[in-house]
Write a sequence for this structure.
């Protein structure tokens, strides 16, 4: 896997470069094995001069990289593939940090298998894994997000949908963990979602989800015509999620999603709001054309 060191867009999102440095896409991968299928902010480096983010890759063959750490400073970006200790997933599409549990993450495959991971140094250990609840016929997942309020936790995920004939289905449920680590879901609610852009036959209406500090739901949408493109994508304000003190989760989707930005030529598969920040990092998996990252001010209240 080949990565470029000029990852200033990611560093800007995490507070390391001047305003304006993230105005363009930065290339971070050269081929189909190194695209960004999902991204999670990990934290700052021990010396405070850099930042770490975890990236999942949608590789399917044994031995191919599943998870990497990108460590950035003002002058460099170093990518470290992480060793995977445990059952090997096929087609990882999303990753999310578990609030309140440092070093713990949930990573989701396209077919709906959710892996709970403990990341320590350069090793990701599988704590447990389980299928998502309420998987519908033909569901294909590329997104996963967590919401924490008042000590309660909820999960959002979505079937990506396919063109005009199949809108996305956005699911939500309370989330807890069994004493042995297994994710446990409460009652599942669901809503249909159709992207405002792109809108063609190759559209994936939800290619990732992020939730702002105030509960706004940001949705990535993408058009994929094949491994060599052409690609198109957008990020939209899709609605809101609330989580009550009793742990009840509610999704309210906008009748007409607000398109925050469109990105012809790119296939966005990662949208990550940074804690306590107005910035979002978006990442692309452009198949044979590689992958890119960019910072955008989409996570304002």
């Amino acid at each position: 896997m080949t990565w470029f060191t000029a990852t200033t867009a990611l560093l800007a999102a995490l507070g390391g470069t001047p305003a304006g440095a993230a105005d363009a896409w930065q290339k971070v991968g050269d081929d189909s094995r190194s695209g960004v299928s999902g991204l999670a902010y990990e934290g700052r480096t021990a010396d405070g001069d850099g930042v770490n983010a975890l990236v999942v890759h949608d590789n399917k063959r044994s031995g191919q990289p599943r998870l990497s750490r990108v460590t950035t400073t003002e002058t460099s970006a170093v990518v470290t593939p992480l060793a995977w200790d445990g059952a090997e997933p096929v087609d990882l599409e999303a990753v999310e940090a578990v609030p309140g549990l440092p070093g713990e993450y949930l990573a989701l495959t396209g077919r709906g298998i959710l892996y709970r991971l403990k990341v320590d140094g350069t090793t990701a250990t599988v704590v447990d894994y389980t299928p998502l609840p309420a998987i519908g016929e033909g569901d294909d997942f590329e997104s996963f997000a967590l919401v924490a309020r008042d000590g309660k936790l909820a999960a959002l995920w979505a079937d990506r949908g396919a063109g005009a004939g199949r809108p996305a289905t956005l699911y939500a449920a309370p989330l807890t963990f069994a004493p042995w680590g297994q994710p446990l879901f409460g009652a599942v609610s669901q809503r249909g979602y159709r992207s405002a852009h792109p809108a063609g036959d190759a559209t994936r209406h939800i290619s990732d989800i992020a939730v702002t500090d105030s509960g706004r739901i940001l949705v990535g949408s993408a058009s994929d015509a094949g491994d060599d493109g052409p690609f198109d994508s957008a990020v939209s304000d899709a609605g809101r999620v609330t989580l009550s003190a009793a742990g009840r989760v509610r999704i309210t989707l906008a009748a007409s999603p607000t398109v925050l930005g469109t990105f012809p030529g790119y296939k966005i598969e990662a949208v990550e709001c940074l804690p306590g920040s107005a910035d979002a990092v978006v990442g692309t998996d452009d198949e044979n054309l590689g992958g890119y990252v960019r910072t955008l001010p989409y996570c304002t209240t």
In short: The chain has one helix and 22 strands.
